[in-house]
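Quick log. Single chain, no ligands specified.
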Amino acid sequence: MRIPAHSVCTAIRDDIVSGVFERGSRLTEELLARRYGVSRVPVREALRTLESEGFVVTRRHAGACVAEPTELEAADLLEVRTLLEPLGAARAAQRRTEAHLKVLRGLVRLGQDRARRGEGEDLRSLGGWFHETLAQASGSPGLIALLTQLRHKTAWMYAVDQPARPVDSWAEHGAIVDAVARGDAERARALAAHHAERAAAAHRLRRTGRQARPPVAARAGRVRTSQHPVNTAGVRN
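-> predicted structure:
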């Protein structure tokens, strides 16, 4: 069975973002192939992709390592995201389908319900799904790819505080969807820009693993318990 490189890439990226692989740590093809139950070929391809995305760097005498972004790089990344998300909302107002609107409205209803109940963990997942769907509604493959990469990288670099009033945040989501549904690109852009600026203020840089490094035994246990095979659903033998 040949496992697609993009499946391996997703698995490695998820483990980098979640902190299983600490910043600066080596990523050997042998270790990764064993971890995900694949050959070295898809691992090699995945590492090239992750290097192009900025998650991995290649160092002389060390090979592939998890990147160590600076505070300035992290700040630039967040600023770029706040600029691109309003563009995505404006494009969505021009290109969305009824299917996109149905999903967006459903997410807003769920988000408003969970916000009233104070179910914070659900809100975090729903918020990510909302912004992913809004980006998809832009109908621009290049913009969708950029926004997806930015979401992954900000999740890696930043922790996000829950808004003091989640109900207000989901009211903003609802207003954006209303503008998108009416095809009002400028209002969708303005509302998304306001929302993105408010959200950016809640981001806090994560402390790196080198600053708060757990004992070796704890690290080994964490890697073992988080180890998972690559999802091979739909892969042809």
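The CA atoms of residues 157 and 223 lie 20 Å apart.
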